[in-house]
Write a structure and sequence with these properties.
Layout (H helix, E strand, L loop, with lengths): L15 H5 L4 E5 L5 H14 L4 E5 L9 H16 L5 E5 L16 H21 L4 E5 L2 H5 L5 H9 L6 E5 L5 H6 L2 E4 L20
Parallel strand pairs: 1-5, 1-6, 2-3, 2-4, 4-5
Length: 207
């Protein structure tokens, strides 16, 4: 795609402007590092463009401090106080989805599976209502792989989403059905990693 020009122009009856404004479903998968990082980079661009950004983390514990979360919460405050960028929401399954009133005892797979299903149900409601413009479903491939959330239902919901809502999904082993309907798929390939040599994660690198 030299200089941003498509290799072929589809015969879909759309103008260049209309085609450019189509919603994007992106998948970041593979064994390499950087899947979530790339998604948050896209979310940063979305925020700068004034889009309503929402991040949903499906696996990370509430005890795991993510640097991007702190940065995006600051960006959300900038929007609220000064009108810069767009509004931001950040939700973690490990902290308990903020919209779930009933408490769950953490620890069992059943609890995690139910929480993941509740999280997806809320996202589906928000997609139907057009509540956000840019969604990051971080590590969402794992609940799909483990059977906690039905892949076919996710695919149908994403294909039926109204408006121009962009969705980025991260995680290893993205289901083939999801990959098939995505507009943008990137596979991160690991060549080398410091942890292979026994080095632990570093502040500013892993979090």
């Amino acid at each position: 795609m030299p200089q941003g020009r498509p290799l072929a122009v589809p015969e879909d009856g759309l103008t260049t402007r209309a085609r450019r404004n189509l919603p994007v479903l992106a998948i970041h998968t593979g064994a390499g590092k950087g899947k979530s990082t790339a998604a948050f980079g896209m979310a940063l661009r979305a925020w700068n463009s004034g889009l309503r950004v929402a991040v949903f983390q499906f696996v990370k514990s509430d005890k795991w401090k993510v640097g991007e979360e702190a940065a995006f919460r600051q960006l959300g405050r900038l929007h609220e106080e000064h009108g810069l960028g767009g509004p931001v929401e950040w939700h973690k399954m490990g902290a308990g989805w903020s919209w779930i009133r009933k408490s769950r005892k953490a620890g069992s797979d059943d609890d995690h599976a139910a929480a993941a299903a509740d999280g997806w149900a809320e996202i589906a409601r928000r997609l139907a209502a057009g509540r956000h413009d840019f969604y990051v479903l971080d590590e969402f491939t794992y609940p799909l792989k483990w059977g906690w959330v039905d892949v076919d239902e996710v695919v149908q919901t994403l294909l039926a989403r109204p408006g121009s809502q962009h969705v980025v999904i991260t995680g290893r082993d993205a289901p083939s059905r999801l990959v098939d309907v995505a507009d943008l798929v990137t596979e991160m390939t690991k060549v080398k990693h410091p942890m292979d040599l026994g080095r632990k994660g570093q502040k500013g690198i892993e979090w």
